[in-house]
Amino acid sequence: AIDKALLILANDYEGFAAKLSLLKTISGISDMTDLILLIEMPEVGSLENRQTASLADLAPMARQSAARVGA
Predict the structure, then answer these.
(1) Dihedral of the CA atoms 9, 14, 16, 17 (nearest 10)?
(2) Is the terminal CB of the chain with fewer CB neighbours within 10 Å at N or C?
(3) Structural contact between residues 44 and 36, judged by C-beta atoms closer than 8 angstroms
């Protein structure tokens, strides 16, 4: 019940509706996952792919145990 109410509210909000419809085009992602992504990362849709991956901590990064080297 709460899930459906949140989705209705999000679809009524102009800023989320367009982004939700864009995220719904990705197969394998549920409506609630779409909504959670937008709540946690409202920048989705306004950043480049690499920036979004980095923000979600999905970008490949070298993790050395010593002092950090590189980016």
Answers:
(1) 80
(2) N
(3) no
